Amino acid sequence: MKRLYYLALLLLSGLGLWGIVLRLTEGLKVTALTSYVSWGLWVAFYIFFIGLSAGSFLLSTLVYVFGMERLERVGKLALLSALCSLGAGMAFILIDLGQPTRFWHTLVYRNFNSVLEWEIFFYVIYASIILAELWLLTRSQSPKAKAWVKLLGMVGIPVAIGVHGGTGSIFALAVGRPYWNSGLLPIIFIVSALASGAALITFLWAVLGPKDGEKPAMVRTLAQLMALFLAIDGLLVASEFLVGLYSGIPDEAGALVALTERFWFVFWVGQLGFGLLIPLLLVAFPATRRSTAWMGVAGLSAVIGILAVRMNLVIPAYVVPQFEGLRRAYVDPRLQYSYTPNGIEWLVSLGVVAFTILVFSLIYERLIAGKQQEVAGQ
Amino acid sequence: MVELPKDDLIFRMHRELAVAMQKPVEQRRWVMVIDLTKCTGCTACTVSCKAENKLPPGVVYRPVMEQESGTFPNVSRFFLPRPCMQCEQPPCVKVCPVGASYKRADGIVSIDYDTCIGCRYCIAACPYGARTFDWGENYTDDTPAFQPYEELASFEYGVARSRKDDGSPVGNARKCHFCLHRLNEGMLPACVTTCIGRATYFGDANDPGSLVSELIRSPRVMRLKEEIGTHPSVYYLT
Amino acid sequence: MSEPTGEVRLSRRDLIKTSAFLGGAALVAGGADVAFNALRTSAQPGGEGRTYDLAHPENVLYTACLNCTVACSIKTKIQDGVIAKIDGNPYSAMTMLPNLPMEVSPEEAAPFDGKLCPKGQAGIQTVYDPYRLRKVLKRAGPRGSGKWETIPFAKAVDEIVAGGKLFAHLGEDRHVEGLREIAALKDAAVASAMAADVARIRKKQMTVAEFKAKHAAHLDTLIDPDHPDLGPKNNQFLFQVGRIHNGRIEFSKRFVQNALGSINWIEKTTLCGQTSNKAWVKATSAYSGGSWTGGTKSPRPDHKNTEFLLVFGTIIFEANYGPVQESEPITEGLRSGRLKVAVVDPRLTKIASKAWKWLPAKVGTDAALALAMIRWILENERYDSRYLGNANLGAAKADGEIAFSNATWLVKIENGRPAMHLRGDEAGIGTKTEMVAFQNGKPVAFDPNDATREIEADLFVDAEVNGIRVKSPLQILLEEAQAHTLAEYAEITGIAQEDIVAVAREFTSHGKRAAVEFYRGAIKHTNGWYNALSLIALNMLVGNFDAAGGISKPGGQHGWKGDKSGQPFNIAKLHPGKLAAFGVPLSREGWQYEESTLFEGYPAKRPWYPFSGNVSQEVFPSMADGYPYPMKATLLAIHSPIYSIPNGFAQLRTLLDPGKVPLYIACDIIIGDSSMYADYIFPDLTYLERFGITQGSHHTRVKSSAIRHPVITPLTETVTVFGEEQHMSLETLMLAIAERMSLPGFGPDGLGAGMDLTRPEDWYLKLHANLAWDGKATPDASAEEIELFRQSHRHLQPTVYSEERWRKAVRPEDWAKLVYLLNRGGRFDSSETAYDGAFIKAKLGGVNRFYVEEVAASRHAMTGQYFHGGPVFAPITDSMGKEIPSDEGEFQLITYKEVFGTQSRTISNYWSQLAVAPENYVVMNAADVARLGLRDGEEVKVTSRSNPAGVMDLGNGRVKPVVGKLRAIEGVRPGVVAISTHFGHWAYGASAMEVDGIVVPGDQRRAGGIHPQPLFRLDDNLRGTPLSEPIGGSVSFYDTRVDIAKA
Ligand SMILES: Nc1nc2c(c(=O)[nH]1)N[C@H]1C(S)=C(S)[C@@H](COP(=O)(O)OP(=O)(O)OC[C@H]3O[C@@H](n4cnc5c(=O)[nH]c(N)nc54)[C@H](O)[C@@H]3O)O[C@H]1N2
Ligand SMILES: Nc1nc2c(c(=O)[nH]1)N[C@H]1C(S)=C(S)[C@@H](COP(=O)(O)OP(=O)(O)OC[C@H]3O[C@@H](n4cnc5c(=O)[nH]c(N)nc54)[C@H](O)[C@@H]3O)O[C@H]1N2
Ligand code: SF4
Ligand code: SF4
Ligand code: SF4
Ligand code: SF4
Ligand code: SF4
Ligand SMILES: [Mo]
């Protein structure tokens, strides 16, 4: 069973790797991106994972900073998923660069006006914090270590918020795109990050958590947290939406219309269905709420839903030309205001995701699961 | 040299360009003025720019937009060429994580192809759609014979670069640069010289006597999306 | 659509292989090496440290564009041996206003770039087209099968010269007559003698019997001894050509007419502006010795000074001759407020969108609109009576006028219809060359060219002289105009009466600074001739000829033929053993039906075109009918008849029949939409790889003589002809045939003792040298300039350029002058020198005609009816005068040109045509679209009376539906369907071809859009001939009704 699981992950990672090699040799022309829709699936995955990471991390701080004893046992899991998600996010942004070999420029050539620039700065600190915490936690349970972890956690909170709120600002500050250009966006990013984090952990714990008396309660708590965040997120998004529609800014309204029409599936089914209704209902019904399995499903559904949210954030903003006349002014396949991810893009994404899960699983088994038992044993 | 004709358009612009180039760079302020009543929508500027800068598929610096308005028989068509606005407050520069996009002292917003990491944040940020990306494609890829003109070095920013072997600018964002490489040689931008309607003017706004200075004082000037505070250096006469 | 079978998947390697015959990198790379080494002197190639090579004069070569027929003067910039950029030539008034004085050195001129249109800018992609032809192809299947084999040039030439069973290996067991057999008449003396006697027969001064007796020994060289006026068998060779332009015209005529001895050198001009050109020639021809000669084919408004411009059916900013010259003076005038424009066109053209009034008149009613204005102008006496009253030069001079008109010259009325002008002798008051007019009610006879006597005459005359009923042309015009009331005209044209009056008033409110400009839209109708005369008459009513801001003579060119004193090479004379071509041309042009021995009453089997020339639509149908005689071999060049002739597909059926077209040879730069049906295709050079003299510009007011010469090493393979290694081209082909057949005027001493004609430059550089010696000789190039010349030619390989060879082509004293011109791309007068006072220096002068007597005196060969001598509003009819019912289809089909495209050569231009508009549309008024319940963007099928199925039949079972995407707009007259003509290609790289067993895939980008050609209305009486205009000879492009249905 387990062997099969790893085999599948290896296989997918392999395929992804092939896609990545192709992309690195052939360049970005292997994607379906255009000069007008210049960000696509990979950027969506990038913010998705940054969100997951920040969310998971913040969740961990409930334990280590706010001492939420009931969640004690998911702490490390959360940190680990924060780390792996961050890695995945980085991988996605890296392969999306037109000049991947120049990624180091971001550390050497600074432009302090650029949010993205600050982002990268934050990522470094953020990553080190997580690593440090994990290192400490896996080495000892001593109060001294705990104290350090708490300290790091406290520092980590603003950083994590910075990391993901920042990602939000990347978009929010694009004056060229009314659809993004909004003050609320960074906040939505944080909340949805928390939601996605909670969702992921819910799911993971439902699957990986040691089967003991506490598990159902634990999962339920996580799920309820998730539901809470999802609800808030839903409200914020709704308000954004309405403001947008009635803002009278044609581009923005246009994008929203496109969102609900051209991308109706991703929006109605993905963002609203998986991302909101299903998880909320599952949590709402006592019957399903009591079932660990169902709560796992709720978590997974929310995670998928939030991926849809990310796609809906990136792509629709692009399908509205800066000037209507640009649609026909000068036409070739790379000067289109439309975009659907192609096979290569999906393959690469699948690969990266698989590889992330692979790494996560391996580390989890080696470093955390074992010790988990001990803790349970005491 | 022999007396040049004393006309008040093309040769005047040439003369004023020469004067401006004598001044230190920070004392020049390049602006472009496009007279929409004279623009015939011919797209010669678009194509001249493509050739001048050896632009591949997916990259265009100066598309000409067309719009029809009214109902038969009271109809009108109107044409709007859109180079880079060389904004005084350029969002594209603000967002560039590595400072590859920067504003020169003379107002031209440049891209340092060697620093640009190809993240395309600037493309997202430009309110005018003036930036496009070099995907590394060629027009005669996958035809019976790839044509050599596609890998000739282009002279953008005064550096000869061939796209051969996918070197920069392949994988970079690209945009109109007011033909900086031509200005340096005392030549007007390629879209200006080829303009069959003589609808596009170019010059130094810091020279109060220049043609462009005269024109931007006219009540007929407008700029695109003034409301977002980018302060374009491209003016339109309506 | 059936692609070639036996498809071989094409690997990269194959692609390289195939690029052995399709324009490949190989050769150019070679060029690059040369350039590299040379470039080292200036800067190291490819790398840093080169700030901007294109700014340096040693990388600049000036030549002439030909991406459309306008042929602007251009500046090409060479980088690593490759054309990197094309701009306008700043020395030329065609491309820079004002233009640089010739005195400016090329060094100093380098930073200046002139204007150019998008097509010109994209010319690089016409030259470096991946589908360029580099080797000779012979068909390896039936015509049009798309299967080819490459064969050696020499072998191909041998085959077409010797003939034989050339396609036996394809199972075609027929003997193909070779050129040697066809060119039966070789003796120059005999040819001239026969030619002279055929002229007598034509004038009925000699009988056929007498002729046969006199030339008994040579009758075997005639097509038909009983009809000597059909000429020699040599006439059964046809040269069918498109936009060939000067220099090449003389070269190919020298070959076709004076070496091969065939009269049949037929250009595409009846597709083009023909009727306009011919009408203008008639309106401006000179009267001498009792008959009419000369004339100018394209007088145009002087936009720079015009105050009111009235445009009929020409797309001034987008097409015409051409956008580069016309736009600036007009936009300047619009901006400064000097100029007001009104446009008559069913479409809101780009200039119409800037006009004071857009008059979307009903299609084909231009004459009605003009006559309506004329009626108002005459009845309200808004005309220039001073100018109109001047009956001769003397009177004009006295008034300080340049031109005068025949408004007052009496015309005889014979059985109710106006005929010839009344001559002095007929009036009994003068000689038979004198004209007669009324002065205060009394007839006077006078010599129109008499500069001393002043004849001011009565304008409106309807009287009797010497028992002969006479009227003045102005009287005839008035009566014609009064055939309808303004209200009726408004009804006919669909233009409100107040608009007609407003435009007429405006037109007559600017003195001589108002002008009417028209072109194809107004005249490519069966009634086009009369439309043209009506519009010319409008100009004459305001007496604007030769006036600044009025109608003026195109600046034209300096002489290149060497027939002016002081010019070194009179090329017409430099032709030892010159053969005289004679006989009725295949298209029966320049002949009155009645003059020929084929006359057998009316209707004739096919139309005759006494007043036209180059009646291209007649070529295939005449071959099909074998009338006046069957053809044996055709050479096609620079022309795509199947694509460009309205309903050329009807003619394709003839082309596909080897019985009717035994041998069809093409010379093309590519496997074109028409050359794909040829038996052989010989590669030609594009306009940037060859020599030439361009045509004069319609829209410069001063002389602009651009020189065409190779700016890169040609991409076609080299061959050896007359012992000279040279690149395959049309010239090389003709030279090679001449060599095989030892034709006079080619080869060693071909131009006379010590003057060889063995390479293109032997010919062209002489023409170029002539330019330098026209009038005041141009200066010599300085030593520095000669050095610059060497530098700027450094990338050219010896196969195309060698200084000593080029020097040898001209006299020593010519060389420095030649270099001076080549360094500037030609000889250009300054736009500043165009005017003297209120008039233009380049003058039409002389008489302008309202009434063309010789046309009035001749008959339509089909109906037997007399033509009209002046403007009339005529219905749209077929060749038997039957009206084309307007209920044949719901909509009126028209076509037009976009500024980024030409008929068929720009489909390879990825930068321009394929990006500005990857496809074209079926353009209709939004209201019509809505009424039909259709939507913008939806695919529709277009059908017509002549194409009820709505299909494009490409032969060999390959059929495409005539389907296009709808574009619903407001800027087109309801009831009209407009389809542009740049798309819908089936060859020219748009579809796969098989060469030597390898399938070369087509480029889908080139296959987009819809072509209107299959829809055009055919003449019911003429077996696959499009409707035509009988006098000027134009094909009709705008008289077809179509129906639209969801595809
Ligand atoms: N871009 C471009 N320019 C070119 C060329 C080219 O291929 N492309 N070719 C060159 C050549 S060879 C030529 S001959 C010239 C032709 O130059 P033009 O004559 O200007 O071009 P056309 O497309 O023939 O013009 C047809 C116009 O007449 C209008 N029209 C149709 N029917 C009628 C009618 O009944 N009455 C009136 N008043 N208008 C009507 C059409 O809507 C269209 O606008 O262009 C030259 N310049
Ligand atoms: N429906 C419609 N039809 C039209 C018109 C229209 O407005 N509407 N316009 C008409 C007019 S005005 C004209 S003038 C005709 C023009 O029609 P054509 O005389 O056919 O001219 P093109 O189509 O431009 O070019 C013809 C072919 O010449 C070949 N060619 C190009 N360059 C070269 C060269 O350098 N050497 C050689 N040997 N061959 C070359 C290419 O195969 C090209 O396809 O079309 C007419 N047809
Ligand atoms: S127009 Fe766009 S690319 Fe140009 S400066 Fe402004 S923001 Fe930057
Ligand atoms: S694409 Fe290049 S120029 Fe644009 S923001 Fe990214 S690094 Fe800067
Ligand atoms: S200024 Fe130069 S780069 Fe900018 S649009 Fe004009 S031609 Fe292109
Ligand atoms: S070249 Fe001049 S006239 Fe033509 S589209 Fe450009 S700006 Fe307008
Ligand atoms: S109008 Fe354009 S295509 Fe035609 S000759 Fe001039 S530049 Fe060339
Ligand atoms: Mo034409």
Describe it.
- The complex is a heterotrimer of chains A (378), B (238) and C (1047).
- With 378 residues, chain A is mainly alpha-helical.
- Chain A has helices at residues 2-26, 41-64, 75-96, 105-108, 115-139, 143-172, 184-208, 214-247, 250-260, 264-284, 286-290, 292-314, 326-329, 343-377.
- The longest helix of chain A has 35 residues, at 343-377.
- Chain A is globular.
- Chain A starts with a helix and ends with a helix.
- The model of chain A is unreliable at 374-378 (pLDDT under 50).
- The termini of chain B are far apart.
- With 238 residues, chain B is an alpha+beta fold.
- Chain B has a 4-stranded mixed beta sheet.
- Helix content of chain B is 20%, strand content 18%.
- The longest helix of chain B is centred in the first third of the chain and has 13 residues, at 10-22.
- Chain B has helices spanning 10-22, 44-52, 91-95, 121-125, 180-183, 190-194, 211-216, and strands at residues 30-35, 64-71, 74-81, 101-103, 109-111, 132-133, 173-174, 200-204, 221-222, 234-237.
- Chain C is an alpha/beta fold and 1047 residues long.
- Helices cover 25% and strands 17% of the residues of chain C.
- Chain C has a 9-stranded mixed beta sheet. In chain C, strands 36-42-37-41-38-45 form a 6-stranded mixed beta barrel.
- The two termini of chain C are 17 Å apart.
- The model of chain C is unreliable at 1-21 and 23-48 (pLDDT under 50).
- Chains in contact: A-B, A-C, B-C.
- The structure holds ligand MGD (2 copies), iron/sulfur cluster (SF4) (5 copies) and molybdenum atom.
